[in-house]
UniProtKB/TrEMBL annotation:
Residue ranges of every copy of the Activator of Hsp90 ATPase homologue 1/2-like C-terminal domain listed in the record: 12-134
Family: Belongs to the AHA1 family.
The protein, known as: Polyketide cyclase
Signal sequence, renumbered to the chain: none
Gene3D superfamilies per UniProt: 3.30.530.20
Superkingdom: Bacteria
């Protein structure tokens, strides 16, 4: 089974990295203008919503929260938003964020796994995660994000 796995070392405390993952305003800076919406109660919905094909409230990604341990673990199912599914099936995968202290920094591990072999969003996810993770690292360390241009 395919999975995408990334390890980043971030020169910031776990609390600052965690804030970048769950604070709507910080997420907006990292995820191209989208915010995270969730009660952060296991079993309930989590979604990333922002400007896109369906307007300002486009649901880009949604799923079910599977695990939530502040400053340690965030795990949820991942489904592509409905506006991206024209003439194709919506598949589900699982995203796991894990934070661990590493000396004076935080080790952030992202695993995006449990992919269906026919899921067409695998390649786009592999490409997007590098920018999202780089922005997460930069935001936690400096308070700003990167300018990737257009």
């Amino acid at each position: 089974m395919r999975e995408l796995k990334y390890d980043f070392y971030i020169g910031a405390a776990a609390a600052e990295v965690w804030e970048a993952l769950v604070s709507p305003e910080k997420v907006r800076q990292i995820y191209y203008g989208s915010v995270i919406r969730s009660s952060f109660v296991v079993g309930e919905q989590l979604e990333y919503v922002g400007p896109g094909a369906a307007g300002e409230e486009t649901v880009h990604v949604y799923g079910t929260l599977l695990e939530y341990v502040p400053q340690q673990t965030l795990r949820y199912t991942h489904k592509t938003g409905p506006s991206y599914l024209t003439n194709r099936e919506g598949y589900e995968s699982v995203i796991s964020w894990k934070l661990e202290p590493a000396g004076g920094c935080t080790r952030l591990t992202l695993v995006h796994g449990d992919w269906h072999p026919d899921d067409p969003s695998y390649d786009a996810s592999n490409s997007s995660w590098w920018q999202i993770l780089s922005n997460t690292k930069t935001l936690a360390e400096t308070g700003r994000t990167l300018d990737f241009g257009s």
